[in-house]
Specification:
mainly alpha, 71% helix
Length: 164
């Protein structure tokens, strides 16, 4: 018979790391006298979850950056690499995403968009597209479902297609 912790581990690894770190901290607080370094184990397990969360957030920032470039940039040549980057990030997220990480992304989307937009502005400015970069929306025009959708891409504002 599976325990609640074992089920949580299978269903939502990020939530499991939070739950297990809290359990270890409670055990340490009660001065459990066993051979385990509970305080450091709790920190390490918590960090493993944080690293997974941070990786998913990083992939979303990259997706946003490249979605914005696909939609607003006049450049033809890098479009294929932007799409490849988006596909790669979406596949990486798919392997890591849990219910609690999805909720985290939804809460963090405005901040993640701001960072992704900043990267897009910088990249576009570097290649002489400062005017187009200024046209990027200040708030996220994409919902989380679209960002994570393996098959969705925004239309180019300049009529560019992937066949161009």
């Amino acid at each position: 018979m599976a325990t609640k912790a074992a089920e949580l581990y299978k269903e939502d690894f990020y939530a499991w790391t939070r739950d297990q770190a809290a359990a270890l901290r409670r055990l340490a607080k009660h001065r459990w006298n066993g051979p385990l370094d509970l305080r450091h184990l709790a920190e390490e397990i918590h960090d493993v979850g944080s690293e997974r969360r941070d990786a998913v957030r990083s992939h979303v920032r990259r997706i946003i950056e490249h979605l914005l470039k696909l939609e607003y940039s006049r450049a033809r040549e890098p479009r294929g690499s932007w799409r490849s980057s988006i596909i790669n990030a979406r596949v990486e997220i798919e392997d890591k995403l849990t219910r609690s990480l999805r909720r985290d992304l939804a809460r963090q989307l405005p901040r993640l968009y701001g960072r992704g937009r900043l990267l897009a502005v910088d990249g576009m400015g570097t290649y002489g597209e400062a005017e187009d970069a200024r046209a990027l929306p200040t708030s996220c025009p994409y919902d989380l479902e679209a960002i994570l959708d393996l098959d969705w891409y925004p239309a180019s504002r300049h009529g560019l297609t992937d066949e161009s």
